[in-house]
Amino acid sequence: MQEFQQYIDGSFEDGSSCFDSLDPATEQAWARMPEATPSDVTRAVEAADRAFFAPEWAEMTASARGKLLYRLADLIAENAPRLAELETRDTGKIIRETSAQIAYVAEYYRYYAGLADKIEGAHLPIDKPDMEVWLRREPIGVVAAIVPWNSQLFLSAVKIGPALAAGCTVVLKASEDGPAPMLEFARLFDQAGFPKGVLNILTGGADVGATLTKHPKVAHVAFTGGPDTARHIVRNSADNLASTSLELGGKSPFIVFEDADLESAVNAQISGIFAASGQSCVAGSRLVVHHSIKDAFLKRLVAKAKKVVIGAPDAMDTEVGPLCTEKQVDHILALIEASVARGAHLVTGGQALDRDGYYMPPTVLDCSDAPDAPCLTQEFFGPVLSVTSFETENEALAIANGTDFGLAAGIFTQNLTRAHRMIRRVRSGIVWVNTYRAVSPIAPFGGHGLSGHGREGGLQAALDYTKVKAVWLRTSDDPIPDPFVMR
Ligand code: NAD
Fold first, then answer.
1. For position 484, what pLDDT does the model report?
2. Given phi > 0 = left and psi -120 to 50 = alpha, else beta, which region is 350?
3. Is any ligand 1 atom within 6 A of the Cβ of residue 175?
């Protein structure tokens, strides 16, 4: 059994309480993880609060903060194979995906390293004589960052990177499912040379998250996870009045018109829903396809889905690995069953694999005759595609916008004017046209409605970790007159 430690105030600590982490491919315990106690959470927040005001960090130039972030990025790039191996072991995400994604995580830190000294204030042309007024952009304070199990290094980079670039300090709670990569990341952070307490990393479940997010010294909560948890977080923010950014789930439509390049669209749909075993917030989980090409599209898609190599997550030829937890498999099976009961037709997959590990095969549900099937509106967070068809552009839009989520959308068409109309009218924070699932540190990411609010990635995300201070400076040498001279 490997042992991991939590990271508080620049020190690595064994937990006073621990839990076993299971390998999703074997269902066997492989590592002992520290479970943060309420007092650990308090110590971590207090360490972050002290670090926020300590001159080592508060007086550090923005360029020097950027240099530390560059150093961290280099360490991530150098250690990407080890981080990838740990994420694969602890979450079941396949090694091909973790290797590529973690190498790219370094680019997120580089992007925010470069931004650190480009967060500028402003000078105001104020409507009063002898007065200079300007705006300083200052860090908002201690940030509580909460991430789910999938892609934790990536989902934490889009929080830690901009928060530290802006001069905030952070307490991150890794998911209780698969925290190993984040606890290993703490060692790289420590090597990078940041002052102690600037970043603290804990793990544990809902109680730890609740204690952290409602702590009075937390100024902002940056959360990625499901909408139900987000509701708890927003309710808890009534205590400390922390601001929140919420990156939640999705039920993203993948819309294919009759003039689309069929092969490209099928390939994009396959990776859009089956990559990461569907455990992706932007999974293109609803195929909305023109009636005239539905059969041809499904025939190609199902043929490819059946050939997908399902296997051990650490094997380089595996294309679909296990889900992270047994609970996730149970949730998916229950939603498939409820959808079939409402008239959805199972085209392929639908049963957990009869082997060790939490394996679900690529699954396709045809909902053409089941408009009320729950699989059209509820998130699986697994390798399950629900299919509907349309005749007109307006019908396609009505289906696409017919959920309470609004994270991402894909549109496949060769018709430029139609693409522009769809881009304007689809309700989502991201829209991909003739491509799917592309991400970059330069492009913001986030949603509407049940998919949350706030944006991660891009310049604005760094500004969101700042608040504006208006400074008034009187420039006249004349004495200020007695205000009560008329008395
Ligand atoms: P979850 O909401 O159950 O858990 C997410 C995190 O919140 C975990 O670390 C958990 O311990 C913590 N948590 C649970 N209860 C809490 C509470 N009361 N207070 C504070 N923290 C608490 O989500 P999950 O099931 O682990 O992850 C899957 C969800 O995450 C899906 O809905 C998925 O779409 C979403 N997700 C969104 C994005 C995005 O960027 N929009 C990315 C990945 C995943």
1. 86
2. left
3. yes
294/299 Cα distance (integer angstroms): 8
Asked if 264 and 244 sit in the same domain, the reply is: no
Q: Does 236 share its domain with 282?
A: no
Element at 133 (helix H, strand E)? strand 131-139
Residue 354 lies in a domain: yes
For residue 487, is it within any domain?
A: no
Q: Which residues pair with 245 in a beta bridge?
A: 222
Predicted confidence at residue 275, as pLDDT, reads 94
pLDDT digits (tens, 9 = 90+) for 198-216: 999 999 999 999 999 999 9
Q: Which atom of ligand 1 is nearest to the CA of 176?
A: 11
Are 270 and 392 members of one domain? yes
281: annotated active-site residue: yes
Instruction: Give the domain extent around 416.
Output: 253-433
CATH of the domain at 381: 3.40.309.10
Is residue 183 in some structural domain?
yes
In this structure, which amino acid lies at residue 197?
Answer: G
pLDDT at residue 486, rounded to an integer: 67
Share of the chain above pLDDT 70, in %: 100
User: Are both 265 and 208 inside the same structural domain?
Assistant: no
Index of the ligand 1 atom closest to the CA of residue 407: 41
- Helices H, strands E: what count in the chain? 15, 21
43-64 pLDDT tens trace: 999 999 999 999 999 999 999 9
Domains in the chain, number? 2
DSSP for 405-464 reads: --SEEEEE-S-HHHHHHHHHHS--SEEEES--S---TTS-B--SGGGEES-BSHHHHHHT
Cβ–ligand 1 contact at 91 (below 6 Å): no
Verify that 267 and 287 share a domain, yes or no. Answer: yes
Residue 307 CA, ligand 1 centroid: distance in Å: 31
Is the domain of 176 the same as that of 72?
Answer: yes
Q: Within this chain, do residues 194 and 61 fall inside the same structural domain, yes or no?
A: yes
What digits encode the pLDDT tens for the residues 270-305?
Answer: 999 999 999 999 999 999 999 999 999 999 999 999
Average pLDDT over residues 167-180: 98
Which tokens hold the place of 397?
């839009």
Cα 278 to averaged position of ligand 1 atoms, centre (Å)? 15
State residue 286's pLDDT score: 98
Predicted local confidence at residue 483, as pLDDT: 87
Specify whether 373 is located in the same domain as 461: no
* pLDDT tens-place string over residues 76-103: 999 999 999 999 999 999 999 999 999 9
* Residue 487: predicted pLDDT: 58
> Is 247 labeled as catalytic in the residue annotation?
yes
Tell how far the Cα of 444 is from the centroid of ligand 1, in angstroms.
20
The residue with tokens 């609010």 is: 453
